[in-house]
Design a protein that fits this description.
elongated, Alpha-Beta Plaits, single chain, 9-stranded mixed β-sheet, Structural Genomics Hypothetical 15.5 Kd Protein In mrcA-pckA Intergenic Region, Chain A
Length: 246
């Protein structure tokens, strides 16, 4: 095998290293027909590419990123965690994109009304580790309700509940007041807290994420960001090898 062939990567690996998404997500993007190589749509797994190939995702040329970027953003309300929106709503990425030439992606989501800590990166491996339930990374939220949050509901949440066919489970909780609680999730499915509260006729006044793993939101003003420290980055990356400890 010649050196050019040896240097080729599977397309989903190339995309992940370009910061598009995790490898698993990239595989779906390929099969869904969003990726071209040298002008041809590729939908097969295992297709290999090199830096000499012209690879596009949704019409935009992508390149392997040399420098990895890891950011913690304090998302304000009324910002969407997406790279586009047909309704032309404000995007969280807009708060940082002018500062970086690299294409960055949010790690997981906070819904439109929710606020607080969210990561942005161009490292697909990091994205997969933080987002995947098997990593067991705690996500901490402060939730305020317009009604008294009865403990019986939180105990139900901890045992696990099924809502519209989806299973949700709370890891732990702590009362701040009878209207305000700290909730910790290990998975954090889409709109999980909001769907649970709605199922118990509890109206959420504020939903604010304050911590992911060892990274805390404190001292980051709303709408601003900071770089993750080397210690923080390594803590997450070691999760994939089961090395990090709380």
């Amino acid at each position: 095998m010649d050196s050019v062939e040896e240097n080729k990567l599977r397309l989903q690996v190339f995309m992940s290293r370009s910061g598009v998404a995790s490898r698993r997500k990239c595989e779906k993007l390929i099969t869904d027909g969003f990726v071209t190589v040298n002008g041809e749509i590729i939908t097969e797994m295992g297709f290999r590419v090199s830096n000499k190939d012209i690879i596009t995702f949704k019409g935009q040329i992508i390149h392997q990123t040399k420098k990895k970027i890891y950011l913690a953003l304090n998302k304000p309300p009324l910002y969407l965690c997406s790279n586009s929106d047909p309704q032309d709503r404000k995007l969280a990425i807009d708060l940082i994109k002018n500062d970086f030439q690299d294409r960055l992606y949010n790690v997981g989501r906070l819904d439109y009304l929710s606020t607080g800590l969210i990561f942005f990166t161009n490292d697909g491996t990091f994205t997969k580790i933080v987002a995947h339930p098997s990593s067991g990374i705690e996500k901490e939220y402060i939730v305020e309700s317009k009604q008294i949050i009865e403990e019986k509901y939180l105990l139900e949440f901890m045992k696990g509940v099924t809502i519209e066919g989806e299973k949700y489970k709370l890891h732990s909780y702590k009362y701040k007041t009878k209207y305000k609680v700290k909730l910790i999730l290990l998975e954090g499915k889409n709109r999980e807290i909001r769907r649970f509260f709605k199922s118990r006729n509890l109206k959420i006044k504020k939903l604010h994420r304050v911590k992911i793993g060892i990274v805390e939101l404190e001292n980051i003003p709303s709408g601003s960001y900071r770089y993750l420290t080397e210690k923080e980055i390594n803590w997450f990356l070691k999760k994939s090898r089961g090395e990090s400890k709380k």
